[in-house]
């Protein structure tokens, strides 16, 4: 193969980070939740010609700096999430591990911050492999999400599937029991997403809640039901562009997440800082125990709230605008 042919990109795809607006954790127990794509941060995958078998080269930020890995699917080795996603995609395409492709995967999404880094990487990888296998027909988002979920289950144990779904749909979604539905948004809606800088493990947070839920099933069941109702109300608040209502729903969700022992003093500080500076509502987003918070903030308050978030300990603050749907 000539050097040029070796570097010829056969297919490429990207997938965004995400935040959960309402309903994390309760969604694992079958209640509805709402997730939003975070388009400033992406994972990307490229398929290039290879030799003999599928090789995955990945580079993405881990808890302790840049993580670089190389996996040859034809070789025995420790199980690896990207290999799980790649095998799922190859199986769906009717191909084997002997497909001679080199898959380059990169991500700018910090891991362990509740921003859906592992899901975005899996979604970009699955979509790129799908395009390489079937260039004329991109796989639909539900299929991509279900294939990527195999890797999520490997990473997080019990995963609801909301992260790969929103990353695959790249739109605000209502998610319940494995099904995603794109949402109507009545007015441009502005958020700030603040990273606490604290690393957390989704699998541990989900397992911890599972243990507490087993001890007090009735209390937890009632909390999950309440969260589910908040998510359904938030669908209407988003559709109507009712920021006041949406902010209240976010605040109520944070209270329930605190009751479930998923918040931390650092996250509570960020939430209080955002509200004190004029956010309409704020809550932790993702699995908790660290990670990020999301605040609903009118555009004229954004600078003040961002400043308050930094003063309360945020290591980064991102703006997220969810545009009104047509
Ligand atoms: O990926 P994270 O850390 O944002 O958490 C995902 C949301 C959970 O509800 C905690 C888990 C899940 O699979 O839905």
Walk me through this protein's architecture.
The chain has 326 residues and is of the alpha+beta class. The radius of gyration is 20 Å and the shape is globular. It has helices at residues 3-6, 81-92, 117-133, 141-156, 162-169, 202-215, 217-240, 243-259, 265-276, 302-311; strands at 11-22, 33-49, 55-62, 65-72, 101-107, 173-176, 179-182, 189-195, 281-285, 292-296, 316-322. The strands form two sheets. Strands 1, 2, 3, 4, 5, 6 and 7 form a seven-stranded mixed sheet that branches. The protein is built from ten helices and eleven strands. A hairpin with a 2-residue loop joins β6 (173-176) and β7. Bound molecules: (3R)-3-hydroxy-3-methyl-5-(phosphonooxy)pentanoic acid (PMV). Residues 20, 24-25, 27-28, 114, 116, 156, 159-160, 162-163, 202, 206, 286-287 line the site of (3R)-3-hydroxy-3-methyl-5-(phosphonooxy)pentanoic acid (PMV).
Labels describing this entry:
seven-stranded mixed sheet; binds (3R)-3-hydroxy-3-methyl-5-(phosphonooxy)pentanoic acid; 326 residues; alpha+beta; four-stranded antiparallel sheet; 11 strands
What's the shape? globular
How many E-type strands? 11
Question: How large is the share of residues in beta strands?
Answer: 25-35%
> Which ions, cofactors or small ligands are bound in this entry?
(3R)-3-hydroxy-3-methyl-5-(phosphonooxy)pentanoic acid
Mean pLDDT: 94
**What is the helix tally?**
10
Largest sheet: 7 strands, mixed
Structural class determined from secondary elements:
alpha+beta
Helix content: 40-55%
Distance between the termini: 49 Å
Q: Over all CA atoms, what is the radius of gyration?
A: 20 Å
Order of helices and strands: HEEEEHEHHHEEEHHHHEEHE
Uncertain segments of ≥5 residues (pLDDT<50)? none
């Amino acid at each position: 193969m000539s050097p040029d042919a070796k570097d010829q990109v056969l297919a490429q795809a990207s997938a965004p980070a995400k935040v959960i607006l309402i309903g994390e954790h309760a969604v694992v127990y079958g209640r509805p939740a709402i997730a939003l794509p975070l388009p400033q941060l992406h994972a990307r995958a490229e398929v290039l010609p290879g030799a003999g078998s599928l090789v995955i080269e990945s580079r993405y930020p881990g808890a302790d700096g840049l993580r670089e890995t190389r996996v040859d699917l034809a070789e025995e080795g420790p199980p690896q999430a990207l290999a799980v996603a790649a095998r799922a995609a190859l199986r769906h395409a009717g191909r084997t591990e002997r497909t001679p492709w080199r898959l380059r995967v990169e991500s700018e999404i910090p891991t362990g911050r509740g921003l859906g880094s592992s899901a975005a990487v899996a979604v970009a990888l699955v979509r790129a492999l799908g395009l390489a296998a079937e260039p004329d027909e991109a796989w639909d988002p539900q299929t991509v999400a279900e294939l990527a979920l195999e890797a999520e289950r490997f990473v997080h144990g019990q995963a609801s599937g909301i992260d790969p779904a929103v990353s695959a749909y790249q739109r605000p979604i209502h998610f319940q029991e494995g099904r995603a539905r794109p949402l109507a948004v009545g007015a441009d809606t502005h958020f700030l997403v603040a990273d606490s800088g604290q690393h957390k493990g989704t699998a541990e947070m989900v397992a911890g809640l599972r243990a507490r839920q087993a001890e007090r099933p009735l209390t937890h069941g009632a909390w999950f039901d309440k969260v589910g109702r908040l998510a359904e109300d938030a669908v209407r608040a988003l559709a109507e562009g009712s920021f006041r209502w949406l902010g209240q729903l976010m605040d109520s969700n944070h209270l329930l997440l605190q009751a479930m022992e998923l918040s931390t003093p650092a996250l509570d500080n960020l939430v209080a800082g955002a509200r004190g500076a004029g956010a309409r509502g704020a809550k932790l987003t993702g699995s908790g125990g660290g990670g990020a918070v999301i605040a609903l903030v009118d555009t004229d308050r954004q600078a003040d709230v961002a400043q308050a978030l930094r003063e309360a300990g945020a290591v980064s603050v991102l703006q997220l605008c969810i545009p009104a749907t047509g």
